[in-house]
Amino acid sequence: MTDSDADGSDERPVVYELADECTETALETGEYYHATVNGVVEYGVFVDLSDALSGLLHESEIPEDESYDVGDELVVELVEIRENGDLSFSTVDFEEFETVEREFEYDVADVENFDERVGDDVHVEGEVVQVKQTGGPTIFHVRDETGTVPCTAFVEAGVRAYPDIEVDDLVHVDGEVERREGSLQVEAQNIEVLKDGQAEDLRARLEAATEARAEPPELDPLIDWPAMEELYPELREVARFLRRTVLEGRPIRMRHHADGDGMCASVPVQLALEKFIDATHEDPDATRHLLRRLPSKAPYYEMEDATRDLNFSLEDQARHGQKLPLLLMLDNGSTEEDTPAYRTLSHYDIPIVVVDHHHPDPEAVEPLVDAHVNPYTHGEDYRITTGMMCVELARLVAPELDDELDHVPAVAGLADRSKADAMSDYLELAREAGYDEEFLQQISEALDYEAFMLRYDAGRELINDVLNVGDVDETRHRELVEFLADRADQDVEEQLDAAMSHVESERVASGANLYKIDLENYAHRFTYPAPGKTTGEIHDRKVVETGEPVITIGYGPDFAVLRSDGVRLDIPKMVSDLNDEFPGAGVSGGGHLVVGSIRFVKGMREEVLDALVEKMADAEIDEELHSAPTR
Amino acid sequence: MTDSDADGSDERPVVYELADECTETALETGEYYHATVNGVVEYGVFVDLSDALSGLLHESEIPEDESYDVGDELVVELVEIRENGDLSFSTVDFEEFETVEREFEYDVADVENFDERVGDDVHVEGEVVQVKQTGGPTIFHVRDETGTVPCTAFVEAGVRAYPDIEVDDLVHVDGEVERREGSLQVEAQNIEVLKDGQAEDLRARLEAATEARAEPPELDPLIDWPAMEELYPELREVARFLRRTVLEGRPIRMRHHADGDGMCASVPVQLALEKFIDATHEDPDATRHLLRRLPSKAPYYEMEDATRDLNFSLEDQARHGQKLPLLLMLDNGSTEEDTPAYRTLSHYDIPIVVVDHHHPDPEAVEPLVDAHVNPYTHGEDYRITTGMMCVELARLVAPELDDELDHVPAVAGLADRSKADAMSDYLELAREAGYDEEFLQQISEALDYEAFMLRYDAGRELINDVLNVGDVDETRHRELVEFLADRADQDVEEQLDAAMSHVESERVASGANLYKIDLENYAHRFTYPAPGKTTGEIHDRKVVETGEPVITIGYGPDFAVLRSDGVRLDIPKMVSDLNDEFPGAGVSGGGHLVVGSIRFVKGMREEVLDALVEKMADAEIDEELHSAPTR
Amino acid sequence: MTDSDADGSDERPVVYELADECTETALETGEYYHATVNGVVEYGVFVDLSDALSGLLHESEIPEDESYDVGDELVVELVEIRENGDLSFSTVDFEEFETVEREFEYDVADVENFDERVGDDVHVEGEVVQVKQTGGPTIFHVRDETGTVPCTAFVEAGVRAYPDIEVDDLVHVDGEVERREGSLQVEAQNIEVLKDGQAEDLRARLEAATEARAEPPELDPLIDWPAMEELYPELREVARFLRRTVLEGRPIRMRHHADGDGMCASVPVQLALEKFIDATHEDPDATRHLLRRLPSKAPYYEMEDATRDLNFSLEDQARHGQKLPLLLMLDNGSTEEDTPAYRTLSHYDIPIVVVDHHHPDPEAVEPLVDAHVNPYTHGEDYRITTGMMCVELARLVAPELDDELDHVPAVAGLADRSKADAMSDYLELAREAGYDEEFLQQISEALDYEAFMLRYDAGRELINDVLNVGDVDETRHRELVEFLADRADQDVEEQLDAAMSHVESERVASGANLYKIDLENYAHRFTYPAPGKTTGEIHDRKVVETGEPVITIGYGPDFAVLRSDGVRLDIPKMVSDLNDEFPGAGVSGGGHLVVGSIRFVKGMREEVLDALVEKMADAEIDEELHSAPTR
């Protein structure tokens, strides 16, 4: 009606070229648009403005001398948007005009609010974190700044929708929020990869949101301890890394040493991660899919375990479209022996984080991992147990855990016989939480016993009951711990009953007492306690009995466990010397100062053990040194 | 209109106070009700009688001098219930009246009839037996006097509905019966815990119904045998306990000795329980969730198995909201060696039932279990095999099994070489069912062989085929048994071919023949037959060969298996004496009269075996005694 | 109206008796039908022609003197089919007529087109290949000439619908095509077993279709090699058998030797079968249900593995109604040691197919299996490796794989040290695909290493990455192979470092060098490389070192691995002689010319080994003979 409006101005009129996706929200009456004829009827022509927008140009609006065919392009003015959504246009005939492209604009919705938007058509912009092909639709898990939501798309049963869209792509999803068996999802009408500009913008927004949400809370360590203070920045960094991993929808696979300290390390972190996953994922099964805790039988990350972990992760990726996991090594993982396994994983997108307090080989390990926290790298030692560090780590991941874990560092310290000065503070903290030292000791023994009985099984509920972490019946916890500790004690007694009378002793040149026990012949096999612990128990009794420097060797057909109190052992050097002396003995092993283990071929046992004893006879007495836990 | 009605009577009028849940069924025109104003409009006020009942008090019914505000309480008379359900009231103005509370009354529906009530709104009163949190709704499994039905409740995806309602609570569920993928369930509009009076009433009804349904049928044992008659009341009691366990929705975890008699015991009970579960649960997957049969590798309930069972059960409880299971020990479980495992479970709500025929330690076991059936506690012995008892038990759980099991006691007896007089009756019973003794013997050998090959696996279908229990192809059963028995026989022959020439013999002081075989050096390892059976086979041949009293010792590096015919061995005393003589040998073990096994540390084998032989040389000859099966 | 039409003819009029299932398609106006009165109303009577067809006989059409009661039978003429489907009839009164039965005729739909027929009522004729009882409906998987589709039928939750219909029955399903969570299925209104004539007809059509679809493509082997040409017809036959097995909905369980050649054999066949299953089954999960690849730890098919396979298959049959599987043995399965396991399976409907290149016992094996391909049966030998044969087999199953496998035969040949002349052609083929020999060698070592690390796990994704088969990242493949080959190499070096100095040597009578290594005492146990490979590596070094005939014996406590180069060993004869000389030694084992292994009881090791060496001293020198791979 008003095609004169623009003529009078001294600027060229603007004609909009609508993007294909544009809907009614992109229209305003009185504006001009590029249009294409899509149908010619008796009473006029139908024109398209975009995929979704078309309307009638009535014959009365068409100059008599003009006629259109399908496909013709023209400029129209939008005269009216009727109540029923029909559009009517008039023609315009500009000599000159300026064409302006109009992108489809939409309000981007926040995933965290979708429970209030069921039934609404929404637009989500986010990153694809998982693409799961089901027997029916394809499910794209899309993460925005506020959460992650599954978006379903269907072409044909079991056929991949949008085959070009993959994990890590940044997309725009247009669809309806629905509740399916109670879970929220978006039934996608359209998913498309964002173009460069939009993608960069979204990437920046996501990164900023992730950074903010991954930031651990400001906390003080549970006790005032300079040694822990020094490690705190690194633990914060690990907490940030883990929180970010969760936010990015990457699974976490936790491997831990299967003993008391390993449990005290891994169980709190497991609980904290579960809480953080629950708080940040819409999918109620996310915890189950994103977190797995696995005890390691060996004291290092064996190739077989790594192969199994990798295989399992690749199957998950193939079957459920999940990202490959982050590997979190706790109370294990700092040594050269772990590196072949790390190297295997390095060919895949699997970040590795290690928190350990065993004597490390940082030069070998650190190039292969994304983070490595170990007290030795700060001039401290095993006395800061992994459990102590990981309770702090757990609090940084989920601060709401806080005082629920007050007794755990003390258990960890007792389990690994930490001589840290801070032990008294930890014991005091536990006492305030209602735990006396004797009972804490019993917890540590019960954990060790159950770790043996469970073997490859994490035993989540049972270990929670023993450690009293999570939602636990207090009375059961108390009774169970007492029973298990007592049981463990009886088994140790039975083992030592058989073994003690077969312990051989000699006083060596340095003046230390050296004890030897043939575990193959004088200890029960395949029962609790295992050879390492059996040796440790014998050693401890001898230390108490003599009050003097003690070295204890427990040996089997092809291995020996070494423990010392008050004698400085240089085990790596011994191993290297033994290999020089007996090239056909295949000696390997390691350890540090007061604890270690070596392996050799069975047929060379006698030669190796004799030489070993000789070397120990010359080892330097150092009253400061006390046995750290063996593995 | 008629507020004069009540005035004329000489009693105070009754005004009803309706419970919040009351619906139209609680109303009658002409009655008086306490009401609360919930809205004031031009033409009157709206009043509430309960959560669901409200109606209009028209201005014409309100005295001119009266005015109401929201929240005011008054007494109204119900004038009319219109067709559309609208209620209209008039005011009354009593000086005195009596208030009577009216509970919401509803017809309680029976779960067993729900297949005819799809689409109806129903009321269920029952006990919560499982609370499963899904990714969508929470599912409460509710048991009434007639069955168990899943009731779904939804607040938010994956969020626990009615978090205060837990397993064992008595509840009233109001909801609609629906069929979901074919299964019946109730979509709950409301679930609430019953108040004291109602709860007591329901508890009594449930208990009475459970008691009636748990009652085993009146049956006679398959054969006329006083010894079995004596055990029958206890087996009935166990049957009642198991039936009650099923009715209460508690899972059953069956552990059994992995040999012929153990199979003959556990397979019939498994089948009977499956039938009973099917008959009493609406959920077609109930059998899979409520029953699990597991062979035990060791001849007692190992701590590791108990730990695994407990861990598994706790995970089921955490993930599926199931009750903790009942543990049913069959052909295992009567000895002191089982008690550490029982003690572990005792900290949890896990009832334990034992049916065994191995020589028991009742004083140690019975305080820890809920039922213990063992012929020795009635002056009988191993000759009543567990298989014989459990066929009766199975019939008491599911009488429809009846003659399907007629051949099983004979197989059990042959498997454990029972010398019971009743064997001839059992063989006759089997003969009538079409089984001659030779073939029964083959079944027992095939079972033993398959138990070895399956290791930790129950092998449900395969064992059913071998034992011909359940829905089995008769021809296949026959052929399979013959093949497997033959195969087992060949393996035994091969083992004895190697071993027999290395058997050492001597005639001891008592006149008995003593045979010794070094199994580590002269038998194949890790193959069928295992050391216990190998020893037994050698022993049996020597008994036949000599026709005199025989003692056989099969020994490995740290164990010895003992068998005797015609010589009375006091194995517990031998173990105790050996421990006194060799404090560092770690001797343990047990057995009874003619069968046993001991363990020791490898390095003391020679001393222990020599002393053992000496003790056996003095053992008393008793022609009555024949070898019972070893484990 | 026109009941005179037929009267004028000289033949008896035809009156149709409609089958119960007939619908409107069976009608034509003017025809005569047998009808039954089902209702009498004021204005006439209603008559039934079939279950679905009934209509009005108006009173005006009924002779005045005639009256009908419900149940009366009469002949009617169809006057009109109204637009709304109502039928109207007139009466006829024939003295004589011929009755012709009219079967229900329907258009049988093709399963392959069901994605275009959602919402339509269709008729399917096919064979039942699986009957799965769910908690809700029963699902019948029905296969027609074009595909397989699930058909659901419901009576009551978890109750078997049509209990008489079983796997292998030929049925007619009438129902509606629907899409359920994206998958196509038929909701059956009716399923019935076809009668003899129809069944025969369908059986013939199915058979013809299956035969056509099972026919492998016409292909030439990858290289021009007469030896392979000779095996080609048998491989085609196996391909046809496997394709038919897939078409018939029978699962395939693949067992393969867990080494390099076994991987090169099984992985291509797995991939090919996956592609063929995907192309022929509607159910998108079919691949997962129908195919399983399992490495065998032992070098033959152990009874324990067979028992586990059988148990697993029977559970699948019981739980999911699947057919029992076909067993496909690859690079294993040709020897007498496999027969006990085959015999166990022979009692069940489990076809067995073997493709192997180890020295076979055709007389023992072939009567027990459905197909057996082995180069020795054609006068060829191990030099045609199983991997070479199976690459051809895979191409015959899924020709689209073609050049994706070009490098695999060369890897297989290197893995088993094939001395085939064709190796140069295979190496050339691989070179053209971008693989040089050194790298192919590394792949073979990496496969062997991963086979050890994965143990019982197939490791699908990981092995695909190593072998570069399927959808693999090329760079990762290259890096991973190099890393793993290097790792394997280091482990071998470490093992030989310990072992080499303990190798004992002597020059025997024949002039050959004989080497002996005590693996129990001078090799690490339970690590890579295992005893067989350790022996092989020592042997290979000695062959290179001496350039003369070499025999190597690696022995443990109860076994010995034998390898020879240039010396002809008759291992079966040695075993038989040893058994004669030492009846209590339990010697068993086997092998062929240059490779073998024997077992014996531990206590007779010295005697057996000494005698073995003596026998070898006399073995004939034959420069032609080179070591084949041991197992």
Any overview of this molecule?
Three copies of one chain form a homotrimer. Chain A has a six-stranded mixed β-sheet, with helices on both faces. Chain A has a five-stranded mixed barrel with strand order 2-3-4-6-5. A five-stranded mixed β-barrel of chain A has the order 8-9-10-12-11. In chain A, helix 2 (226-247) packs across helix 3, helix 9 (408-415) packs across helix 10 (423-432) and helix 11 (437-454) packs across helix 13 (474-500). Chain A contains 17 helices and 25 strands. The first copy, chain A, has 631 residues and is an alpha/beta fold. Chain A is elongated, with a radius of gyration of 35 Å. Chains in contact: A-B, A-C, B-C. Chain A binds chain C through residues 134-137, 154, 156-159, 303-304, 307-308, 310-311, 314-315, 317-318, 340, 343-344, 347-348, 558, 583-586, 588, 599, 601-604, and chain C through 115, 179-184, 282-285, 450, 453-455, 457, 459-462, 465, 476, 479-480, 483-484, 487, 494-495, 497-502, 518, 520-525, 528. Chains A, B, C: This is DHH family phosphoesterase. Chains A, B, C: It holds the Pfam family DHH. Chains A, B, C: InterPro entries: DDH_dom, DHH_sf, NA-bd_OB-fold, NA-bd_OB_tRNA, S1_domain.
Topology:
3 copies of one chain form a homotrimer.
Chain A: E1 14-18, E2 32-41, E3 44-48, E4 54-58, E5 73-81, E6 87-91, E7 98-102, E8 121-133, E9 138-143, E10 148-153, E11 170-180, E12 183-193, H1 196-214, H2 226-247, E13 252-257, H3 260-280, H4 286-290, E14 291-296, H5 303-320, E15 326-330, H6 339-345, E16 352-355, H7 362-365, E17 371-373, H8 386-397, H9 408-415, H10 423-432, H11 437-454, H12 460-467, H13 474-500, E18 504-507, E19 513-518, H14 519-522, H15 531-546, E20 550-555, E21 559-565, E22 567-568, H16 571-581, E23 588-592, E24 595-599, H17 605-617, E25 620-621
Parallel strand pairs in A: 1-2, 1-7, 4-6, 10-12, 13-14, 13-15, 15-16, 16-17, 19-20
Antiparallel strand pairs in A: 2-3, 2-5, 3-4, 5-6, 8-9, 8-11, 9-10, 11-12, 18-19, 20-21, 21-24, 22-25, 23-24
Helix pairs in contact in A: 1-2, 2-3, 2-8, 3-8, 3-9, 5-6, 8-9, 9-10, 9-11, 11-13
